[in-house]
Amino acid sequence: MKKLHPIMFAGTGSDVGKSVIAAAFCRIFKQDGYTPAPFKAQNMALNSYATPEGLEIGRAQAVQAEAAGIPCHTDMNPLLLKPQSDHTSQVVLNGLPIGNRHAYDYFRKEGREELRSAVCAAYDRLASRYNPIVLEGAGSISEINLRDSDLVNLPMALHAHADVILVGDIDRGGVFASVYGSLELLRPHERERIKGILINKFRGDLRLFDSGVKILEEICGIPVVGVVPYYKDIYIEEEDSVDLASKSMQAERGKVNVAVVLLRHLSNFTDFNVLERDPRVHLFYTNNVDDLKKADIIILPGSKSTISDLYELRRNGVAQAVVRAHREGATVLGICGGFQLMGQEVLDPDHVEGEIERLPGLGLLPISTTMSGEKVTRQVSFTFLPSGAKGLEGYEIHMGRTTVLGENAVSPLNQLSDGAFDGYMTDNRCMGTYVHGILDNPSFIDYLLTPFAKKMEEANKPFDYHAFKEKQYDKLADHVRKHVNMDLIYQILQANQS
Predict the structure, then answer these.
(1) Percent of the chain with pLDDT over 90
(2) Is 465 inside any structural domain?
(3) Domain containing 304: what range?
(4) 455/407 Cα distance (integer angstroms)
(5) Which of the residues 265, 326, 336, 398 is marked catalytic?
(6) Which of 74, 274, 340, 450 has the fewest Cβ atoms nearer than 10 Å?
(7) Active site includes 436?
């Protein structure tokens, strides 16, 4: 295939849809016979993923790699910031944590060149293997106060010699000002890289915006490559968890009602995407004690700050509500940090997470967890011991070591392919695991739902999540292809340029 220029989707602001648009183009280029790969120099998200090598990247780039049909790699997201508070983040470089940074210190110019060299080297390695590279910017392309320390937007586009498409969100209003203003704030050599405008999340009759397209092209001097309508029937894994609390809390008859406890530092919420799509399940997120009474299954999810979340659960009564619900017949499942919460205690003698050295857990499992500075990140294959199902897959991203207390019998949930054991279960209604993605395995889902078979109208319809996701990527590509001038995109990506 002919070599294409790299393409960057940069935004007029945050949450304009850059990640999803980039995923769409990864699938489009794949469909058209190219070998695309995603790239985002720096990502900020709690929702991360483990690569096949056992290293950590942002979930959005893992999704984009999946859309491209290739394994994810740290070169696709060499720098990941995982917020720990309003002011500090854990810094993950090339898949490994290198420490915590205060936002002010992180964005100072001093020391930025080392990070800039690292992300550029990652891009160069990726570009030597794939065609084209689909880059994603971060936030606004025109944060001029951070211009000299920016690693993600135009400095990366300039390094990559990428053609930049500016994405504007018309749904939030002010799209003319945001697009025109973003371009006007750029310096001339930066402005030259912007080759087109893409209007995203349009609602209503597209013909009503025909005049808007002409106006934008006249005042900006570059083409509008497409106007992509808002969609409701395509499901792509999200990077941000801001809308989780809005998902319905009303229990439904004929389905298994599954409550995910809405932790303050909830991470890896994409663990539950499969349950959202399973026709046998009604999933909702809550930290309300009354809502938990409606649940057949309660899931304690991953946490970026286990002790802080445990303290909050005890303070607001959720911990007691979960224990009470289990006593009255609900299943409780803990994943990663949620598994740690289910034990007798969580210890932090070295103050890895903060000043609290010990907190009692929920007491549902006879385990103790000691926090440590060493992070485990790896993809795993495992056997689910209660059913004997083999070849299940998932990944681990956690800090802390969990052991069985005293004379309690060892009762693991899984056996990993290297022979090690994972998790703990007391019975089929109380269990925990360190494996993210365990819910993506149909045999585990079936086991989890079996105690509630009588109430399921759809009990005989297992859900193939992999096939579902592949269909969604194709639907997304079709949707974007229909509303973007792909002939123009290919002309831009093949034109002579410096």
Answers:
(1) 72
(2) no
(3) 255-456
(4) 38
(5) 336
(6) 450
(7) yes
